[in-house]
Request: fold
Amino acid sequence: MTNKVKVEHTYKSVWDKLSKIDLSSQTEKKMNLTYLSWAWAWGVLMENYPEATYNFYQADDGTPFCRYPNGTAEVRCRVQIGELQREMSLAVMDNRSNSVAEPSSTDVNNAKMRCLVKCLAMFGLGHYIYAGEDLPQDTKAEPKPKAEPKAKAEPKTEPEEHDEGWANAIVEGLKIPLALPNTVKELNGIFKSNKAYIDVLEEKHPAKYEEVLGLFKTKKEEIENV
Reply:
């Protein structure tokens, strides 16, 4: 019988691995700011540390954010990899990065996803994005000596971007915002904001697509029966 060796992670080993991963092709620009897709970020983390978990702050009365006296709010996230923990907070903002007073569930959901990504950056994943860099340090192009011409170039194999791991990360990630809406309108807003991912599931992972539709249907029935 083979005994499994427990891997002890350190902050340094996790940082050294995650900070070198290039996620530049999964970012998008909004209002001169660069954003990293939460689905990609979580999918990459699962590929490297599948035991990782996260949780969000919740007040004693069930409110999923910390409210300030002026009505604005912030969300707080904790990510754990083995025995390692990092925490991050983020104000609930509109699309112009202004704090939102009396935020809706959609506002809170969007802030949670962005806060999760920022918390992952504390472990090294995509941290260079927040430092204003285009690429992680170890992947930046350096001047290279002129190579001798080759008779024939070897074909490149492109990585599979929407594999099973990606699909699983999307489904698990959607369960977070689906716990928030109290109205069908808010539920539809979550579907619309994630439609690009759902469309890819429909095309490449029909079984996962049906699972997502089932999650939305169940949540709609739950809202309508309250």
In short: The chain has a mean pLDDT of 82. The chain is about 40% helix and 15% strand. The beta strands are 27-30, 33-36, 53-56, 66-67, 73-81, 84-91. The longest strand covers residues 73-81.
